[in-house]
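Lay summary. Proteins are chains of building blocks that fold into shapes, and those shapes determine what they do. In this project we predict the shape from the chain. Here is one chain we studied, written as its sequence of building blocks.
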Amino acid sequence: MFTQLKNIDRAFQHVKRFSMVFLLACAVVTSAVVYCCYSAMRENGSRVFILYNGKLLEAMASDRKQNLPVELRDHIKTFHRLFFTLDPDEKAISAGIAKALYLADGSAKKAYDNLKESSYYNNLISANISQHIEVDSIQLDLNREPYVFRCYATQKLIRSSSTVLRKLVTQGEVRVLETQTDNNPHGFLIQKWETLVNADLNPKAIQP
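And here is the predicted shape, written in a compact code that computers can read:
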């Protein structure tokens, strides 16, 4: 009888150890499956598919902070290009300025109104002058928000008989918006914008 009890106790111990090992193995396998699923979801979440000309292209998504300096510079550059690139056509000027004003606050609208009141645009049209801008560099302070910037650019005023180069320096702040739209794809807004320098680089006109 005692021998049977010992056998039963020994069998119970074996079953107990087997159950513990089995539960531990299940826990390890479950943890591994959960980790693999999480890694796969995170990897798939960073994949972006773009439909272009009927073809599905794959791109990699990244944290916006990594691209923040690039996006800020592009926003600032786009604003200056739209605001300062002018052809002697009233509708073309209005269209460019309208797009630029989506990217900035009332400080840009005030600058536009001042130029308009001084007949700057009318003079360009009457003299058939085209104005183009080349952004040379943009300084950014990313230590605090809104982000302070200073833009250095070169303006080219093209007449039929000559070309004049002007040095342009502006500064302002860029605020991050909650939404991105077709009119403001980066979701930034330039504020407190002002022109510091706008002076001729060449006293004598450059002959084309």
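What the prediction tells us: The chain has five helices and six strands.
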